[in-house]
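protien #1 (seq + structre)
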Amino acid sequence: ASPMGGSYQSVGLNIIDSLADISAGGTYEITYAYVDSNFCSAAVSNTILVNETPAINLGTTSDNCEGDTLFLETGLLGMDHLWSTGDTSTIIQIVSSADYSVTVTSAEGCEAADTIVVIFHEIPLVSISGDTVACANEVISLEATSTASSYLWDSGETTSVISTSSPGIHSVEVEENGCSASASIELVFNPVPVVDLGAEIDSCVGATVLIDAGAGSSYIWNTGDTSQTIELTDAGTYTVTVTNEFACMSSDDVDVSFTEYPIASFTYSMNETIVTFTNTSQFNDLGSYMWNFGDGQSSSIISPMHVYGSYTDYTITLIAENSCSSDTAIENITILDVDDPLALDLTIYPNPTAGLVHLNVNQAHLNGLVLTVFNMLGEELKQVAITNVKQSVDLSGYGQGVYSLVFRNTEGLYYHHTLNVIR
């Protein structure tokens, strides 16, 4: 027997008060050394064999989905196993939720045990509700109902309710506790009728307009008609709703107007050689006009003014024309010569001119004397106050042609002169 009071030493072991902390199997040499009060020493060594304890790690928790199969194994071959299920193999098959444990014994009789919590979560339920057939101009609302809380549609949307106008198969996937399920639905969008009544229709009074709504199964017009085509003689807005064999509907409308045939007429007033024409034609607001003044000149102005160059008879023609027809009004007028004392004391030269006109006027007629220049359409171009007995007027800014010079003063004296401008 060894005396008390000595010390233990070993390579690879931590020994405190004769207790060794052995954390791994293996062969260890332990030495006990003793020194007495006379400083005499003695030592003794012994070799011990420590067998390995089986190392098991099943994990703490395993989450699975119903219908899955879980395999638990230790990986420790050549050792005895005893599972809580009664199985004795190294690997077992699990299909239900529970706490599972295993005890493993090595050939040297060393034991180890471990436990794992296995959960099999329910597969979430999911279904899709909503119409499966609609018309191409409609939208279908689909709703997914599920025990899960997350949704993912094939469109990328993540809400439980979506709206779509796309035909084909639509699917949704739901997930809860890592377990997923999906549902799908097929949608059909039937075509709608093609209804095109065209652009605005304008016809002539007395004509009949035929409107065709196109192919369909049934028709309803705002006139009450139920045929594919209707004949119209009244202006207005006409609407039709067409239904096809799929019970899909489409509508369109068109404005129809009827233009009256024009009636040409005019009145006129004369001031010496200046004639003002007033167009009194009817039913031609959107039409055109053409005047012929009987002196080789014409105009398309609605109500023109014209200056005549000679005292004679003229035949005036007005043509009023619209999309339905044209009408002509004819009047004969006479431009009378008047007593013109101003002309006796007024000289105008040169005529023709390149633009500059010289005037010689009697001093007695200068009282408020004004020159007004007109073109052959009767349009007033210029007014000049004549204040000197000798004065020049520049018409070089106007193109080549015939111009009317009309002189008036405050005494009521009047003179008309026709001037040719050349280039």
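ok now protien #2
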Amino acid sequence: LSRRQRQMCIRDRLMSSLLDDAATWVSNELNDADFPHKDAVFKHENDTQIGRGFKKGKGRYELIAPHATDTGTQWVRDEAFVEGRNLTSLDIVDGAPTNITEGRINRDDFKDVASILVRNYVFQVLKGSFAHSDIHPGNFRITEDNANVAILDRRNLIPMTTELRTTIRSAFGSILSGDLNEAAHAIAMHAMPPDTDPEKVRQTVASIAESAEDPSALVTGVILELKRGGIAVPLDLSLLLRNFMSVAKLGKEAGFENIAEAFLHTSTGLDELIEMAGEEG
């Protein structure tokens, strides 16, 4: 094949993979008969007003999961309405008080919001039974009294299997220690057949790790490289890594240097991160 033909084949494989992922995601969301159970568990573990799992930390906000009712149909959802504004409709301001009704949030409050969402994401993937599949600013709402952050659109919750959690734990640990090469290797190996030579994978992703400006660029580079090669990256891993990029971006928007700084801002201390990162018993 000519170079142009090879490039077209790679483009077609990548497009086919992305379309397959989108179709699977929609199908999973529409046909999840276990959603009521999953959502009840998710709420039990992540709603800080319940207090059975994730803790609010030292920030000002409680994290809440509004009640969701299964309507018995594929197309209609019933999620309790929360008065307030989504993060996408709030302007971050310096030197002015927060007024959610008027659509503004001051920098200090936004830092608390970003921090609790970063911490909750880490809790979901390292300790939770299920993880939100679509973390982005439009799926979080600040209540009008500026006291709570509501987690919206919790359909298609991702079961956190032992294998998936092990991969995420390894990748996160490597990112936090600054070893992007090892993080890329952990992500890539998760998508490979059991008999894959790990050293060949390490060599393949080494250049991606070396050129990545930050962990988000690393994640994007590894996933795209695997898809270009025709390797099926599991959808659950792709979604969790995309969510990592989303919370990392949120942290940067708030003014944090990195995801670790964002985590610690409202954390009760390093013991919280160590406890989350600990091996399952």
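The mean pLDDT is 86.
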